[in-house]
Amino acid sequence: MRKLLVVMLAVALSLALCVGAFAEEKKIKAAFVYVAPIGDHGWTYAHDLGRQQLEKMGVETAYTESVAGPDIERVIRGYAQKGYDIIFTTSFEFMDPTIEVAADFPNVKFEHCSGFKIAENAGNYFGRIEEPRYLSGMVAGKMTKSNVLGYVAAHPIPEVIRGINSFAKGAREVNPNVVVKVVWTGSWYDPAKEKEAAVSLINAGADVIAQHQDSPAAQEAAEEHKVYSIGYNQDMSKFAPNAHLTAPSWNWSVYYEQTIKALQNGTWKAEAYWGGMKDGVVYLSPLSKAVPQDVVDMVEKRKQEIIDGTFNVWPDKTDQDLLTMNYFIEGVEGTLPK
């Protein structure tokens, strides 16, 4: 009996230790560094929805918005010094500062969005947004009457160029006469410049305006000028109820949740993540009622083919080709500034 009691006590103690360890394991602190305000209704807003989802999981989070220039490294380093377990840096220009700070804090994990560098304690992540970009191009190619599509673009980096080309590829599949005119703003978030660029494209004959920008300003310009629009990051239809057709969109909570779980169970490792529509990290927002049913059916069919893996937007390109894309395909009109 005494032996049985000792065994039972040992088992109970072991279980208590396990429970205690699990409870301790769940106390994760995650910080986010944003390039624009969370009220941009676009890129940063989408990331912040993912952060909010982590809080629902019991993760303690913090964030700093509108970070630029010399403040980038300072903000990242500050979170590392405060003992955050993982720091998510969410813009391309945050890549080098992230890697530099990671070298000084080997016990902190770092995740950088849209870059390509990796360190022992720093991974990177992005999504195959070119998949819903392509689908949105199909919609635009069917909805245009002028055969001119406008594209308001931020910076001429591979991420943005790849999106423009994917959009044009989808549009020209369904309408070979389409051209995509590109105007650069030189900024991720500048509503005034974005709107001005959209208006210039409308004046140049574009009757569908797409964007790789953080605000809905281009959508509002399309609404005011009574042309169609394609949003980005999230469904932007509330800003342009008559113009907005659809939007290539992000669900960052998919990646943030799996990253935190990996951190909790000890399986996290620095790697390059690039999920697609089948993973749910990217998707196409609902098509508006202005889109005819035959176009809806066509897009849904192609979307399912992408998810099933029977259709590849860029079948002749490797991931490295896509990550370094620095040219426009046929049908895209615009310059590529250095």
From TrEMBL:
Signal keyword on record: yes
One protein family per Pfam: Bmp
The keyword Signal is assigned to this record: yes
Signal sequence bounds: 1-23
Gene3D superfamilies documented for this protein: 3.40.50.2300
Cellular component aspect of the GO annotation: plasma membrane
InterPro entries: ABC-Purine-Binding (IPR052910), PnrA-like (IPR003760)
Coiled coil: none
Keywords for the protein's UniProt record, in alphabetical order: Signal
Residue ranges constituting the ABC transporter substrate-binding protein PnrA-like domain according to the UniProt record: 28-311
Transmembrane segments: none
Name assigned to this protein: ABC transporter substrate-binding protein PnrA-like domain-containing protein
